[in-house]
Amino acid sequence: MTNEPMQDAEATVDGQNAGTSPQDQIEALKGEIEQLRADALRERADLENQRKRVARDIEQARRFANERLLSELLPLFDSMEAGLAAAAQNDPLREGLELTLRQLHRIAETNGLVEVAPQPGDSFDPERHQAMSMVENTEVPPGAVAQVFQKGYVLNDRLLRPALVVVAKQE
Q1: Which of 35, 83, 97, 122 is the most exposed place for a label (fewest CB within 10 A)?
Q2: Residue 10 above 50 pLDDT?
Q3: CA angle 132, 133, 137 (to 5 degrees)
Q4: Do the Cβ atoms of 104 and 83 come closer than 8 Å?
Q5: For residue 110, which phi and psi values (nearest 5 degrees)?
Q6: Which residues, in sequence order, are bridge partners of residue 155?
């Protein structure tokens, strides 16, 4: 067994280095080290950015994991509130319905659901309200909410359903 390949490699290295001074070789190696350091720093920054991105995605998924369930509960809130509005004050079922609705609202609020229920006279907010129509109304200023058809809901600062409102217009 001969060491010809090994001798050829050494000859090549010696041949490449034969025309350069030791100082040039040192400078080339320093440049290579700096490049490797920069590559390592870039890789570390990329990994840190990816870690932050994954953590942000997990937090978003956690905050909005129950969005579908809460969205499906909105018609239940509407129905229960309509039932309360129609029930007589002395109806024995009214108290139970009020307690049930309060408990549902408390559970929903604990999970990040917030009711958007503007009052007549509140300013119209196009980010959270949807204007169904405009009416002349002397009791509230122009551009303000005159009537609420349906409450809206926000989940962790994300609009699930806008409040449906009538807006007062100038005469």
Answers
A1: 35
A2: no
A3: 130
A4: no
A5: -60, -30
A6: 113, 158
- CA 6 vs. chain centroid, Å, equals 61
Pairwise CA distance, residues 153 & 51, whole Å: 32
Amino acid 19: pLDDT: 64
Report the top-level CATH class of 67-169: mainly beta
Q: How far does CA 48 lie from the centroid of its chain?
A: 21
Q: What are the distances in angstroms from CA 101 to CA 25, 79, 105, 107?
A: 80, 10, 6, 10
pTM recorded for the entire structure: 0.64
Residue holding tokens 């060491």? 3
Identify the residue whose tokens are 């503007």: 118
Express each pLDDT in 110-121 by its tens digit. 989 999 999 999
Q: How far apart are CA 10 and CA 21, in angstroms?
A: 17
